[in-house]
C-alpha cells in the first residue's frame, strides 16, 4: 500500500504558484529521488511531505490519513527532514544528536550513540560546541540526529551538498542501509543525477513545480518518456 | 584622593560592624529591586518572546517602536506617573501604596519591563530564521519549539535581565518620588546616597555607593555564572 498519495496538490506563496503536482504516489519502503533545477519546487514538496505547511489546495494522504490542518503529534513524528543547511543548536554535538529523542521523552541508547559517532567520524567532536562545526560535519550531525529517532520516513534535502567524496559515499551507504535494514521510506532531493541513479529505486523530475516524469530509476535514466527528462539527464536542459 | 580612601575605610567599617540600619537599607534595596525584576521577567520574557516569535506583530510598526521608546523611559517620569496614580486623588489612591515599598516595586517594574520585553524580542528575532522550521521537522510541539528558541536566545535573555537589573538598582528618581526616602520604611541605597550627599556626609555617601556597586557586581556575577551553567552539554 502506498505511503503518500498526492492528487492535484498545489502550493503558492503570496499568490505565486510554486508547486502543482497532478498525481504522485510514494511507496512504503522505497528510496525516491527527486531531481530538478534550483527553485523547481523540490524543497517545497518536502515541506508538504513533512507537514510543515499545509498545501494551498489538493489532496495529500499520508498512510491513509488525509493531511489537513494539524496532524496528531504521533503521526507527525513519523517523518523527519534533514535539510540542506542544517541549523544546529548552541549545544554540544552529542546534545544535538539526542535532541530528537529528548523531544520525544526517550532516553538515548548509549551504544547506538557511540556507534553513530564512530561511523560518522564525529567521535573526536562529541563534546564540542556544534556551532563550531564545518558545514559537512554539521550535516553529518543532523543526519545522525534524524537517524537516532528511527523515523518511518526520512526526507533528505541535498544531504551531501557540503560533503567531500569520502563522506558522500559514507552517507549514501548509510541511507541505503537504513532503507534495507529498517525499511525506512526515503525521499531524496538532489541536484546530483549520479547520486539519484546510485541510490534510488525510483526517480522523478520536477520542473517549474510540475512533476514531469517519475519512474524506475533505470528507465528514467536510460529510456525516459519525456524529452525534458532526457535533456536534464544529459545535462542539456537550459533553465 | 583622601575622601576616596576614607570612603573605602568607611564602607569596610560599615560592613564589619554589621550596622543594622545599613543592612536594613541593603535588604530593602534587594527586596524592591528583586521584586520588580522578578515581575518584569515573569511578564516581559513571555511578551517579548511572543512578539519575537509571532510573524505578524500586533499593531505592527507601532508597538515595537513604543517598546523601544519605553526602554529609555526616564525613571523620574515613571515615578511621577506612579505618584499621580497612587496619590489620594489618583485612580489607585484607595490602595494606600504611596510611600510604601509596594509603590517602589511598581515604579521599578515599569522602568524594567520595556527593557526586558525589548531585549527579549531582539534576542528571539536574532535566532536563525530556519531554526523553527527545522525544529518542527524533528517533531517539536509548539511549547518545545518556544522553549528551544528561548534556550537558543539565552545569551540575549540574560543580557535583558542584566540590563533591567542595572537600570533599576541604580535609579533614584522613581523610588524617591513614590517611596519618599522614609527612614526605616522606604530608604534604599540610592536614596540614602542622595540624602548623605545633601548632608555633606560625602564619605558615607561614597561608602554606600561602593556597596551599591559591589551589590550590582555580585548580582551580575551570579547571573553570568548562571548563564554559563545553563548551557546544555
> Can you tell me the CATH topology of chain A?
Rossmann fold
What do we call the CATH homologous superfamily of chain A?
P-loop containing nucleotide triphosphate hydrolases
Q: How many domains make up the 3D coordinates of chain A? A: 1
Total beta-strand segments of chain A: 10
- CATH fold title of chain B: MetI-like fold
Distance between the termini of chain A: 36 Å
Q: What does the model show?
A:
- The complex is a heterodimer of chains A (239) and B (233).
- With 239 residues, chain A is an alpha/beta fold.
- Helices cover 35% and strands 27% of the residues of chain A.
- Chain A has a single domain, classed as Rossmann fold.
- Chain A has helices at 42-49, 73-76, 93-97, 99-103, 110-119, 135-148, 165-182, 193-199, 217-222, 227-233; strands at residues 2-13, 16-27, 31-35, 57-62, 65-66, 79-82, 153-157, 185-190, 202-207, 210-216.
- In chain A, strand 4 and strand 5 (65-66) form a beta hairpin.
- Chain A is globular and about 50 Å long.
- The N and C termini of chain A lie far apart (36 Å).
- Chain B has helices at 2-16, 20-53, 63-70, 75-86, 101-125, 131-138, 142-152, 154-169, 173-179, 189-198, 202-229.
- The A-B interface holds A 47, 50, 52, 73, 76-77, 80-81, 83, 85-87, 89-92, 94-95, 99-100, 103-104, 127, 145-146, 149 and B 128, 130-131, 133-134, 136-141, 144, 148, 151-152, 231-233.
Give me the secondary-structure topology:
The complex is a heterodimer of chains A (239) and B (233).
Chain A: E1 2-13, E2 16-27, E3 31-35, H1 42-49, E4 57-62, E5 65-66, H2 73-76, E6 79-82, H3 93-97, H4 99-103, H5 110-119, H6 135-148, E7 153-157, H7 165-182, E8 185-190, H8 193-199, E9 202-207, E10 210-216, H9 217-222, H10 227-233
Parallel strand pairs in A: 3-8, 3-9, 6-7, 7-8
Antiparallel strand pairs in A: 1-2, 1-4, 4-5, 9-10
Chain B: H1 2-16, H2 20-53, H3 63-70, H4 75-86, H5 101-125, H6 131-138, H7 142-152, H8 154-169, H9 173-179, H10 189-198, H11 202-229
Helix pairs in contact in B: 1-11, 2-5, 2-8, 3-5, 4-5, 4-9, 5-8, 5-9, 6-7, 8-11, 10-11
Amino acid at each position: 500500500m502506498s505511503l503518500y498519495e498526492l492528487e492535484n496538490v498545489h502550493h503558492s506563496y503570496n499568490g505565486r504558484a510554486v508547486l502543482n503536482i497532478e498525481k504522485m504516489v510514494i511507496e512504503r519502503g522505497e528510496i525516491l529521488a527527486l531531481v530538478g533545477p534550483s527553485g523547481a519546487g523540490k524543497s517545497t514538496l518536502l515541506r508538504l511531505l513533512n507537514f510543515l505547511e499545509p498545501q494551498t489546495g489538493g489532496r495529500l494522504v499520508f498512510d491513509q490519513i488525509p493531511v489537513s490542518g494539524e496532524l496528531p503529534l504521533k503521526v507527525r513524528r513519523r517523518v523527519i527532514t534533514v535539510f540542506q543547511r542544517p541549523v544546529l543548536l548552541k549545544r554540544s554535538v552529542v546534545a544535538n544528536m539526542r535532541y530528537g529523542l529528548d523531544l520525544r521523552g526517550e532516553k538515548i541508547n548509549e551504544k547506538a550513540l557511540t556507534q553513530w559517532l564512530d561511523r560518522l567520524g564525529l567521535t573526536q567532536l562529541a563534546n564540542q560546541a556544534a556551532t563550531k562545526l564545518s558545514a559537512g560535519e554539521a550535516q553529518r550531525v543532523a543526519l545522525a540526529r534524524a537517524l537516532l529517532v528511527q523515523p518511518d520516513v526520512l526526507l533528505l534535502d541535498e544531504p551531501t551538498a557540503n560533503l567531500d567524496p569520502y563522506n558522500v559515499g559514507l552517507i549514501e551507504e548509510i541511507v541505503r542501509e537504513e532503507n534495507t535494514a529498517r525499511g525506512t521510506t526515503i525521499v531524496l532531493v538532489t541536484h546530483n543525477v549520479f547520486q539519484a541513479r546510485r541510490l534510488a529505486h525510483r526517480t522523478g523530475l520536477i520542473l517549474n513545480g510540475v512533476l514531469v516524469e517519475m519512474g524506475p530509476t533505470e528507465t528514467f535514466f536510460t529510456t525516459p518518456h519525456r524529452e525534458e527528462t532526457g535533456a536534464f539527464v544529459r545535462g542539456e536542459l537550459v533553465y | 584622593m583622601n575622601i576616596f580612601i576614607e570612603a573605602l575605610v568607611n564602607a569596610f567599617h560599615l560592613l564589619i560592624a554589621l550596622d543594622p540600619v545599613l543592612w536594613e537599607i541593603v535588604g530593602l534595596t534587594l527586596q524592591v529591586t528583586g521584586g520588580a525584576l522578578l515581575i518584569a521577567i515573569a511578564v516581559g520574557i513571555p511578551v517579548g518572546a511572543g512578539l519575537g516569535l509571532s510573524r505578524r506583530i500586533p499593531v505592527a510598526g507601532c508597538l515595537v517602536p513604543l517598546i523601544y521608546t519605553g526602554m529609555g523611559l526616564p525613571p523620574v517620569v515613571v515615578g511621577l506617573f506612579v505618584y499621580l496614580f497612587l496619590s489620594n486623588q489618583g485612580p489607585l489612591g484607595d490602595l494606600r501604596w504611596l510611600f510604601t515599598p509596594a509603590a517602589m516595586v511598581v515604579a521599578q517594574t515599569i522602568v524594567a519591563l520595556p527593557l526586558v520585553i525589548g531585549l527579549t524580542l531582539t534576542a528571539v528575532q536574532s535566532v536563525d530564521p530556519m531554526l523553527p522550521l527545522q525544529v518542527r521537522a524533528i517533531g517539536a510541539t509548539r511549547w518545545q519549539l518556544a522553549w528551544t528558541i528561548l534556550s537558543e536566545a539565552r545569551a540575549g535573555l540574560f543580557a535583558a535581565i542584566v540590563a533591567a537589573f542595572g537600570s533599576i538598582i541604580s535609579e533614584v528618581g522613581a523610588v524617591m518620588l513614590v517611596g519618599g526616602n522614609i527612614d526605616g520604611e522606604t530608604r534604599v541605597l540610592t536614596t540614602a546616597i542622595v540624602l548623605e550627599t545633601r548632608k555633606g556626609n560625602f564619605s558615607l555617601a561614597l561608602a554606600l555607593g561602593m556597596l551599591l556597586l559591589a551589590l550590582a557586581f555580585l548580582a551580575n556575577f551570579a547571573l553570568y555564572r548562571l548563564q554559563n551553567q545553563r548551557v546544555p552539554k
